[in-house]
């Protein structure tokens, strides 16, 4: 390290980067949320993602130049977290962006100036890479910047052609590496040797848009997207052996080690890995919850749940008993609040979510770990090297033990898990579940399919009319089409038009009557099959025939009760969001004549006091009409 370089904290590195580009006409913009606007990705995975619509020409930029420190989450290398010097799930990407303004030469010159003059990195310790076909960038580095040819490496598309996702803006890039061992010389430089080199700055020359077929189309404007890894630059400037021992992460590691009653420095490698995983993942979950992600079994909520569970399990591995995640989260919040004040604003939500998830998962661990240990011992005694897929599925389905966790534990024991067997068991269970919940009368549906060519779909009039003059199109008895049915028969009737609301969205179908000359049918339920409204009922008197003209009349008192209960579900949701948790959303409902049921996801029980508040609020809204 040159004498011009100095120890800089992570916060100082972040600020110096932003100030450098602000002085060069860049607008400092705040970090976007980890929940991206881009629907093609689950989480914000890169500093450029918030600007993707600008790069695509879908939105005009407010500024020609911008600079940010962007929170990012990536889990594609989650197995390497803690095991390598610089793999993370959460990281900060320092970036400078040009929207159709400057391009390669200026970006390269500023990247070099920042690295060597602001951060004081010795030029002789830097190596650059370029895309093998990018002669322009190669020439700029060699002739304008003065980097020796031996320290300019041409790389293939896998390394030096950057894409933001499966589709979208992309282009060749040029990377700057720090050399920890320049004494080894410039012969046969291997930039993939991460014991010697660390890539800390990536300059992306955004020139193309890639479609779903992989075709490249030139963008209307050439853009610059750069990214400097804050954690990596901190490792270099603070002269520590890995990112986890920088001041950005190590205080979290230290807190976890103190809770466990161990010393990081004197710990064995396995213990250090667990401490590093905790340090990394706690940063992730704190920022995810601060950005209003909540643990669940799908999407980004599942990512959050998986990360929290890994934290808890690695805490157990180093000897922590009981709940500890809110305590380490406090350290992460303190480290981040100056740059991201939202983590302190939402401190209570962060700690409450962690406490709930940790408490739940500790119970899961206690049940599942014992059975998994028995399975592992049996597999080893049988001389096998793989845990069966059905065993893994039993752990998941019966004990709530995540398959990823089973795989992690198996790997630690030198075993694998039969993934295909697990997936097969999962598919069987889903098929059984689907069959058990099948509500469509297949016989009825089959009969209607056969008649569909001869009858028109039902016209629904129920939003404006409580009754209608209709014609009988189909009569079904026990799923079979008949021309007529007599009193006492249970029937399903299709009319050409109807005022009856069919069961949908949790709201039950209307009740009422279908009547004609000397015939009366009591309608007890209505369902919609394809485009037909099927009226389920019993003939009270007379004989009903196909093509009979009839009057269809709903029971208005039942309809009004259903309407009231439907409205009440909306009031109930609003009150729940007001008094319990603003993130509550509907997960299902039943709207019947005599009652309503509202299903919702909530991470904690509703208290009796909150129930009272909800009841009073809804009654007030009803009184106010």
Global mean pLDDT: 87
CATH topology of the largest domain: BirA Bifunctional Protein, domain 2
Indicate the percent of residues in helices: 25-40%
Q: Could you state the oligomeric state of the chains shown? A: single chain
Termini, distance in Å?
Answer: 73 Å
CATH architecture of the largest domain: 2-Layer Sandwich
List how many beta strands DSSP finds: 24
Tell me the overall shape.
elongated
- The whole-angstrom Rg is 32 Å
Task: Describe the protein in words.
This protein has 625 residues and is α+β, with helices and mostly antiparallel strands. It has five domains: 10-240, BirA Bifunctional Protein, domain 2; 249-367, no CATH class; 375-438, no CATH class; 442-554, Elongation Factor Tu (Ef-tu), domain 3; 562-623, Threonyl-trna Synthetase, Chain A, domain 2 (Threonyl-tRNA Synthetase, Chain A, domain 2, 2-Layer Sandwich). Helix content is 40%, strand content 24%. It contains 18 helices and 24 strands. Strands 1, 2, 3, 4, 5, 6, 7, 8 and 9 form a nine-stranded mixed sheet that branches. Strands 13-16-20-19-18-22 form a six-stranded antiparallel beta barrel. Strand 4, helix 4 (135-145) and strand 5 (152-155) form a beta-alpha-beta unit. 39% of the residues are buried. Mean pLDDT is 87; it is low at 433-442.
């Amino acid at each position: 390290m040159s004498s011009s370089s100095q120890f800089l904290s992570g916060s100082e590195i972040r600020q110096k980067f932003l100030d450098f580009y602000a002085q060069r006409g860049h607008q400092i913009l705040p970090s976007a949320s980890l929940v991206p606007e881009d629907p093609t990705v689950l989480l914000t995975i890169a500093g450029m993602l918030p600007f993707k619509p600008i790069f695509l020409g879908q939105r005009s930029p407010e500024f020609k130049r911008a600079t940010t420190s962007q929170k990012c989450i990536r889990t594609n290398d989650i197995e390497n977290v803690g095991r390598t010097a610089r793999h993370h799930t959460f990281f900060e990407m320092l970036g400078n962006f040009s929207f159709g303004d400057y391009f390669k030469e200026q970006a390269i010159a500023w990247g070099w100036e920042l690295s060597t003059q602001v951060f004081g990195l010795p030029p002789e310790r830097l190596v650059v890479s370029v895309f093998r076909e990018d002669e322009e960038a190669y020439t700029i580095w060699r002739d304008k910047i003065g980097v020796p040819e031996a320290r300019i490496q041409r790389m293939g598309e896998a390394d030096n052609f950057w894409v933001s996702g499966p589709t979208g803006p992309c282009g060749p890039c040029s990377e700057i590496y720090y050399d920890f061992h320049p004494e080894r010389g410039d012969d046969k430089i291997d930039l993939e040797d991460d014991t010697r080199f660390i890539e800390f700055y990536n300059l992306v020359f955004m020139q193309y848009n890639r479609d779903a077929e992989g075709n490249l189309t030139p963008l209307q404007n050439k853009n610059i997207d750069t990214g400097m890894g804050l954690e990596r630059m901190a490792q270099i400037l603070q002269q520590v052996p890995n990112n986890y021992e920088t001041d950005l992460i190590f205080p979290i590691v230290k807190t976890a080690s103190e809770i466990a009653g161990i010393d990081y420095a004197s710990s064995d490698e396995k213990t250090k890995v667990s401490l590093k995983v905790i340090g990394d993942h706690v940063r992730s979950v704190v920022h995810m919850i601060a950005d209003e992600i909540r643990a669940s079994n799908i999407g980004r909520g599942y990512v959050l749940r998986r990360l929290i569970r890994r934290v808890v399990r690695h805490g157990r591995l180093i000897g922590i008993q009981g709940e500890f995640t809110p305590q380490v989260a406090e350290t992460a919040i303190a480290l981040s609040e100056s740059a991201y004040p939202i983590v302190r604003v939402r401190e209570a939500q962060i700690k409450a979510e962690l406490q709930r998830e940790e408490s739940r998962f500790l119970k899961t661990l206690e049940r599942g770990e014992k059975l998994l240990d028995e399975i592992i011992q049996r597999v080893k005694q049988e001389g096998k090297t793989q845990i069966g897929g059905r065993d893994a599925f039993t752990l998941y389905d019966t004990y709530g033990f995540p398959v990823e966790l089973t795989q992690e534990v198996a790997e630690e024991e030198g075993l694998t898990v039969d993934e295909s067997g697990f997936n097969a068991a999962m598919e069987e269970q889903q098929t059984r579940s689907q069959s058990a919940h099948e509500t469509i009368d297949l016989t009825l549906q089959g009969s209607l399919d056969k008649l569909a060519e001869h009858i028109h779909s039902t016209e629904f009039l129920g939003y404006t009319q409580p009754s209608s003059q209709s014609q009988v199109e189909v009569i079904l008895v026990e799923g079979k089409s008949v021309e007529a049915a007599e009193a006492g028969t249970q029937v399903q009737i299709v009319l050409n038009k109807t005022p009856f609301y069919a069961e949908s969205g949790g709201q039950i179908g209307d009740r009422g009557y279908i009547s004609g000359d000397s015939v009366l049918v009591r309608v007890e339920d209505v369902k919609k099959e394809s485009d037909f409204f099927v009226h389920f009922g019993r003939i009270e008197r007379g004989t009903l025939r196909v093509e009979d003209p009839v009057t269809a009349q709903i029971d208005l008192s039942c309809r009004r009760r259903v309407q009231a209960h439907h409205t009440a579900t909306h009031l109930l949701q609003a009150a729940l969001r007001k008094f319990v948790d603003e993130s509550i959303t509907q997960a299902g409902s039943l709207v019947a004549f005599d009652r309503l049921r509202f299903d919702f996801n909530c991470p904690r029980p509703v208290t009796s006091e909150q129930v009272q508040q909800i009841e009073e609020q809804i009654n007030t809204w009803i009184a106010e009409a």
